Amino acid sequence: MTSFLDLAAANLLSPMVLFFLLGALATIAKSDLSIPEAIAKGMSLYLMLSIGFKGGASVAAHGIDGLLIASLIAGVILSAVMPLIAFKLLTASTRLPRVDAAAVAAHYGSISIVTFLAAIQTLDGAGISYEGHMVAVAAAMETPAIMVALWLAHSGRQMAGTVGGPSGGQGSGMDRSVLHDVLLNGSIVVLVGAFAIGCITGANGLKSIAPFIVDPFKGILCLFLLDMGVIAGRGMAEGRKHLTPPALLFGLYMPLIGATLGALAAMTIGLSLGGTALLITLCASSSYIAVPAALRLALPDARPSIYLPLSLGVTFPFNLTIGIPLYLALAAYIH
Amino acid sequence: MQTYPKKRIDIMVEAPLMKRVLTLLDQQGVTGYTVLPALAGRGIDGSWHRDGLVGRVGSVVQIFCILDEARVDAVIEPLFDLVSRQIGIVTISDVQVIRKDHF
Fold this sequence. Notes:
Number of strands of chain A: 0
Order of helices and strands of chain A: HHHHHHHHHHHHHHH
Number of helices of chain A: 15
Helix content of chain A: over 70%
Strand content of chain B: 35-45%
Structural class of chain B: alpha+beta
Helix content of chain B: 10-25%
Largest sheet of chain B: 4 strands, antiparallel
Radius of gyration of chain B: 15 Å
Largest interface: A-B, 37 and 28 residues
Oligomer: heterodimer
Strand content of chain A: under 5%
Largest sheet of chain A: none
C-alpha cells in the first residue's frame, strides 16, 4: 500500500502529469492557451516515431520469440473481447441507444497510445525494463475493437430492420475505405514503420539518431501532454453537458475491468513486470484518436458528444493521474 | 464588365469525411473545388475548436465549388446521401463569374 502511495505521489508530481493538469486547469479557467493543430500533429508523429523505433531496436537486441507472438495474440483477443463486456455494461447501466453504446465500447476495446507513452515514461523513471515488442501489441490492439463494435451496432440495426440508417445513404458501415483509413492511419504507419526500422537497424541505428529520438523525448512529451490537458479540459466541459452519472461512472470502472483482464493475460503468457504493467495500461486505456475518426465514417449516427468526452475527459485523466501507478502496483503485486 | 450567373455549393463538413466528399465531386465531374480549414464553431452537435487536435475528429473543413445551374441537382443528390447523417451543413447560393467556361 505504501509502495502504491509512493508511486501515485511520484506520478502526480511528475512534470508530465503537472503539465497535463496545467493544460486542463487553463482551459477550465477559460485561458486562451492553445497549441496550434500542426504543432500538435507534429509532436504526435515525433512521439510515435520515437517510441516505435526504440521498441524495434529492443526487439532487434532480444530477437523475435514466442512471447512476442503470444503477446500479439493476447492483445488482439483482448481488444475484441473488451468491447463486448463494455457494451453489455453500458446497455445494462445507462440509457444510451445501442449505436452510442457500441461506439463507446469501441473506444474502450481500443487503446490510447498517449497513455501508453506515459506508462513507458513512468517505467523508465522507475528503472523498470519491459519488452520492446509491446509497441507492436499497442498497434495490433487499435483495430479489432472497431470491427466488433460495428458488428454490435449493425446487428442491432438488422434486428430493427434499418440497415444503412434512415436515409439509406452512404457513409456507414465498415467498407473498404474505412478499413483502409483505420489500418493506414498516419500514426499507425509511423509507429509500425519506425518499429520495423528499429528492428532492421538495431542498436547502431538507435545510437545514430539518439540525440533526436531519445534526448528530447521527455520535454516533447510534456509539451504534448500540456496540449492533451487543454483538449481534455474541453472534453470535461462537454462531458458535464452530455454525460449522465452512470456513463461517467463507466468511464472510471471500465478501465479497472480492462486492467484486470490485462493482468490475467499477462500472467498467462508470462510477461515481465514492465511488460505486464504496459499490457494492463493498454487494456485500461481508451482511444480518442484512431477510433473516433473511424466511427465518424462507419457509424455516423453515434454521437461524438458522448464518446469523446467520456474517453478524453474522464478516462484519460483518470489513467494518467491515478491509473498508471495503480496498474504498476497491480503488476508488481502479481509478480 | 460582362459577368455570368452560376451556382456556388458550400459544404461545411467534419474533417474525416473530406476525402469522400472530394472523391464524389471528382466522380461527378466537378472541374474545380477549394478546401478551407475552419478554426472554430458551434452547431446543434456542440462546439468545436481546431487548435491542439491530434486526430481529425472535432475539426470541420469548408469545401466550395462553382457549377452551372444545370448540373447542380446531379451533384447535390449523391452529396446529400453522403453527408445527410454527418455533422455539417450544405448551402447553395447564386454567384456571378467572369470566366463562364471554367465552370
